[in-house]
Fold this protein.
Amino acid sequence: MVRRGGRPGRQAEYEAGLPTQAGGLLEPSRWPAYEKDDLERLPIEPDLEKNLRRLEAIFGHDPDFATRRFRIGGRVAAAALFLEGMVERPLLTENLLKPLVQYRPEPGARLTPAFLAESVITMPVQRKVADLHAVCDHVLDGCVVLLVDGEREGLALKAVGYEKRSPEEPMTEAVVRGPREGFIESLATSVTLLRRRLKTPNLVLENLVLGRVAHTQVVITYLRGLAAPELVGEVKKRLARIDVDGVLESNYIEELIRDHPLSPFPQVIVTERPDRVAAHLLDGRVAILMENTPFALVVPGEFVAYMQSPEDYYHHTVLGIFIRLLRWGAFAISLLLPSIYVAVTTFHQEMIPTRLLLNIVGAREGVPLPAVVEALVMEVAFEILREAGVRLPRAVGQAVSIVGALVIGEAAVTAGVVSPLMVIIVALTGIASFLTPSFDLAIAIRILRFPMMLLAASLGLFGVVTGILAILIHLAGLRSFGVPYLAGLTPFHPQDWKDVIVRLPMWMMRRRPRELAKENRERMAPDLKPHPPGGRGRRGAD
Amino acid sequence: MAGKVSISAYQAMWYQVGIVLATAILFVPAIVAADARQDAWLSLVPAYLFGSLQVYVATRLAQRFPGETVVQYAPRVAGRVPGKLIAFVYVFYFFFVGYFVQQEFAALMASGYMPLTPPVVFMLVLAGLAAYAAYGGLEVICRVNTLVLSVALAALVIVFLLVVKDIKIWRFLPVLENGPEPVVLGALPPGGWFGETAVILMLYPFIADKEKAVRAGLLAVFLLFLAMELVVVSSLGLEGPLEAARFLFPTFNVVRRIRLEALPILERQDAVFMMIWVAAMMVKLTTFFFAAVLGLAQWAGARDHRTLILPAAAVMTALAVQAWKNIPELFAFSSEVFPLTIIFVNFFCTVLVLALAVARGIAGSPAGRGGERG
């Protein structure tokens, strides 16, 4: 869409104002696209009217483009250019127009932008602009650009004020206990949410603009002294590679910076919780925030990070231990339960206790399908229901879930199409998959469940273990930004295990994860275990 | 960001434990019990000593040439043609153990779990997994091994705890009924199996903390000794020496014999044990297969071993299919021929190379040519 290098002779087109043809004004869709290089070659002229004519040629048709002409102190012509809806009008009137109009300049004094910015205008100044590209850029960014007749420079003034949502509780990562605010689409607000949690000058925010057309603000953030410089360098290198027309959601970035693009497993942590990002930064990771989406990216994302929920740390450690164990169990169930059921009922009936076996046989008696087909049909039906649940308008959601439950659960069993046990299996599998805190990991497991069922149907438990091994080998070969994907599980670092299968008390997790923070690994002072007053340490020590 | 491949000495140790345990557990109890009867548990002691000696010799040899594998330095030590010959013996040995594992595995599956499936299916699946892991390289194999072995050892201990109440002490009596000879004779096969830890000859260049290698190797053999004692004691104590010697896979029979009135769900769970053992066998096969492919590439002077993976897997599977006609033949082979074959390579060849190297004063440079991509 955007060509590199301008076209010669374009200047004349901008001079002439709105493009015309024989029959009158040319259709806006037929105007040639404005190129950055062309605009950069057009400086701001001392003649204000000429500048405004050129800008109208660019923005002329846009209803939200506003040009406010006025005279400074009633004498010098000036104009404020901005986009309606992107700027805060009261701010503009009070701090720009009013002071300028009321200002009485000394006769004959030059009104340079520098002078105005220092002595007259009470608005924060973004920077000086000298060419039309800079003017357009800042106007589109929500600045007010002030042009003064007779000057070769203009001023871009900060006045951003557009409609935005206030921070709400994140929908995808709800917690029982913990902060209730999540990132929003406005980058400035999101950055503030993060700043409020890490009040240190070592929180580095590096700015970046991505997207040839969309010009999306992206911020790389990390804690100086904690994040490995090589990691930060690698993140920057990968982001710099991105050259697309638009970056509309953080997945655009994620897909372009992953280590293994075709692996179903997530390699970048996605979250809309500022507390989670802060916790990850404290571990030595690097976060990528961008405007227009509440979802931030955190790298590197190794496997165990997807099994940790921020809430694990907001509850009592006993619950933390229990929940983690439950979660790993549910993870295994959501991947393996249907395939193990298929394998055991098809190949290894001797493993089932006799009573249960009789029940199963009784229940399956009228079912016309082999176990694997039954399982596949039910799983697909469940996936359909789940996907429908996401897309449905809220008003009809209830109705569909009732129909789904009745049809899939009750009627299918009564009709003898599936066995009741299979309904239990599928329901348990589906619910267990929601225990995985990361939606991305849950997706990978959801998809891998199907090949696992086919393997189980063809080779029994041996097929299941073949599938597990293939997944394991795949995982062992993955890396996320230089960190082995199975870091925390293997290579074996006993220190790190405190936060993997269980979540031990805070005072026991003294060090940061081994693979992330190579240096500066101490997280807290030693010996923080609280004691009742009086008996410090072991009884009778003194 | 993929740097030089390196593993730690303790990863290598887990590795040595994993590869020996995977198959030793299947055959060794029956083989030892056949000779040593109720003293089989004693046989493991000389086997342990012999195993320690083997791993010590192999690690010392490897330390002499820290940056190279045995295939690379054998020609320098023994002269070009004999050296290449010795190197080929090693390479073929790795392949040999590889397809032996495949056959053992197919025998286990065909006899115990899926008698109607043609054995070649199991060999192909296992070879496919091994090839996939070999593409990933040594680090991948190591990580998988650590996880698999943790689960496998845990399973072994749990099984032991479940059967310990049924172990009868009189099944071990009388001690040394026929004098010490049967004990020593029975020590030969497990000693051979312990000697498989000599695969360190191929892995040594990739170990990062090389100074710990000897200790880690000796520790590996000790852990193996403990694990094997667990297996032998439980199968002897549960089945008695005669029965243990008659069964093809006494260990699996131990799992079948778990009897718990309170928790019948834990009975007859040998298929779960089989699942875990499939993983262990896969790791073993992958290790030897990887060593074989790497060795073959170095032997032939190929630049990248990866291109050899698929053809080598095919050849290995073909060898496995033709090698033994049926399970009794395989079983006889593994008790009478296999231990001696691998002792010949692991011990005699290694001693030979070491002796030649010492006699001729040849050693690798300390820095070596390490850091081959694995």
